Known about the structure:
The structure holds 3 protein chains of 3 kinds.
Chain A: H1 2-30, E1 40-42, E2 53-58, H2 64-77, E3 107-110, H3 112-115, H4 126-130, E4 133-136, H5 144-148, E5 154-156, E6 162-164, H6 174-178, E7 185-186, E8 210-211, H7 217-220, H8 227-231, E9 236-240, H9 247-254, E10 257-258, E11 270-273
Chain B: H1 2-17, H2 19-26, H3 40-44, H4 51-72, E1 76-78, E2 84-86, H5 96-99, H6 103-114, H7 120-123, H8 127-130
Antiparallel strand pairs in B: 1-2
Chain C: H1 10-36, H2 51-65, H3 67-76, H4 85-106, H5 115-118, H6 125-152, H7 161-184, H8 197-223, H9 230-261, H10 264-274, H11 284-302, H12 304-307, H13 312-337, H14 352-384
Amino acid sequence: MMKKSKRSFLKVAGIAAIGLGAFPAIHFASSDSHGTAHAVKSPNEGALLAHRWGMVIDTNKITDEVAENIVTACHKAHNVPDFNFEVDEEKYPNTRPVNHKQEVKWIWEEGFHYAFPDKEDEFLAERFHDLPFLVTCNHCKNAPCVKACPTGATFKREDGIVLMDFHRCIGCRFCMAACPYGSRSFNFRDPRPFIEETDLKFPTRSKGVVEKCNLCAERLTKGEQPHCVEASEGAIVVGDLEDPESEIRVLLNEHYTIRRKQSLGTEPSVYYIM
Amino acid sequence: MNKNYIITGLVVFVLAVLSPFWFNIVTTTQAMPEAELLGKSKTEKKCVLDKYEMRANHMSLLDEWRDAVVRDADRQYKSANGHSFNMSLSTGENSCLGCHEDKAKFCDSCHTYASVDPYCWECHTNPKEIK
Amino acid sequence: MLEIAIKGSKNYWLWIVFLLAVIGAGAIVYIDQFTNGLMITGMSRDVSWGFYIANFTYLVGVAAGGVMVVIPFYLHDYEKFHRITILGEFLAVGALIMCLLFIVVDLGQPIRMLNVLLYPSPKSILFYDMLVLNGYLFLNIVVGWKVLEAERNQVEPVWWTKPLVYLSIPFAIGIHTVTAYLYCGLPGRGFWLTAILAPRFLASAFAAGPAFLIILCYIIKKFTKFDPGWDAMQTLSKIVCYAIIANLFFFLCEVFVVYYSNIPGHKAHIQYLLFGYHGYTQLVPWMWTSLTLMGTGAVFLLIPQLRNNKTLLPVTCAMIVIGAWIDKGLGMISGGFVPSPLHHVTEYAPTGPEITITLAVYATGFLVLTILYKLATQVKEEVRG
């Protein structure tokens, strides 16, 4: 009998202790002492806005040189690590050798058959064989990565940009499995030793999070065009897909364009003029 | 027999549980450092919230800011006291570090004292450290 | 009841110490992974899930397999399973603990793990996987423990264990179905994009789980005074037989569809696994080993004389356990990632550190399993004696 009552006492005491422990947290959560209630948050004045951002890449205008400039401009500005960069031993001693298969990239060159594997034409026009095709995140209308993310770290903004919240990402990489375009990279290691020159206008990433093209959301908000557009010598246009008057819609109207893996129903927002 | 074991065990347990106190007795305790206002922040005389609220709740504010910037594309913050700020930790004049120029004295001194290690700087860059 | 676990023979303690040593080694390597990131693994941009998730998938199957003793006993009053039901439930507990650990070690930012609860995302299948896995774990712990406790006190189990048992049955099917949905709902991965994935997962689960349970029964019989009963093992082996045949049949369906339809995006993966793709053949010998093991195992179980052979049965079961492990562990995950969505071929093999951490997770599961089985067998001995 004695044993029983001691046991039940301990049970009750244990539950009470949990309640007691939770009290400060509940108290904090219920208080509104942050004084932020009356503050107003707003977008920058002069920010570029759209209903749904999209991109058109004119493949006729992309030469190897232009493509390289674009990739470099994007990767430099976003502090994307370059695993070919020789690490500064003084600053980062004992950096382990890299595995190039674990690289990070936001926008890069692919051959036609890789960029469009479902368009395996047996007798493809010769010139397409050597053309560089730039591939990046498609900012899909029905983005599979957004659906897959278990924390909302990958999300779709109202203006159609598919974004990463690096603070929230737990690094489960479900989004990488979900993306049909291989557009996502995982930080298998701390990227900082491999950044030649850190651009102060954009954060670096920490190990253990996924990253990808953000359509230069940080520039659009300041009224500036994305880096790829600026470096493209007119080959890339970014604009509002839902505005019939926009430059991008005029281009789409005038040219035959294709998108990557249209049959999957993800509705990519990146178009290629052939 | 058992009694001795139990008593010894209890004594060891109590001693172990109180270890932080023993640790504090044998080590010297430093006074809490005062966050120093240097450079621009010294003359500016305005901040998002008043000093004490900032001290207590800056982490909640920053959390709110990052959600606003990353998720809602809001970048401007008009505080209840009428001042406007760029919701950014380290980029631009009107950001946290834009005014509180010395991260070591403004952030780190307290964080080190309080033994907290926020991961902000794993990604965000302190302009001073890069130059 | 736990006090039983701290009284054991020398062998028992040697085994425990061995497991703890493996866990310790893995923990040290994990500290390295925790500080330096997943760079220590063989995973890459193209193959972004590897050994951890593969073993997770396999063990979800083992856990779900436990229901193959629960259904006959609780739904059909099949008395011969009375003695081993608890073994099935505790096997599920051990397997699920390993599953959850594999998820944790696979995360890039494990300290943010609770974001899954802080920002629940009902559109993500991972959200449901978390719910069913934890739910099934909870159900098995509660039911297993309560029923065993009642047995020890020689009273009827509390009334509410019954509804929980019934609830655990759909949960068992659920954990493996939802785990299959993680993969088969992804538009760009032709290998996984098949409605038969969940049934296939279940079939291989209902083969590998009970087969492993049979092996465990042999071990228990050898090392304890508790006899799980030859009849029960015979029935289990028939379950394994049908399940493994179903598994092979489903795979055959898969092979037919991809080769006859000849759609490149779907065919490439199975081509890579069975014959190699563009000269990359790393997994080919593994896959054929797996098919041979499962096929031979099925034949051995089908012929009554071979199935009834007490020395052959554990060997057959081991063949099926290993065959299913290769099929699901190595083939299922790598096969989905190779070739990549852009049809590049990046092969994957786990690294030493990755394998060490994996073994440590297995050791943790086996430690839990050992302790639970020790309780179960001892209680059953006590009651009989």
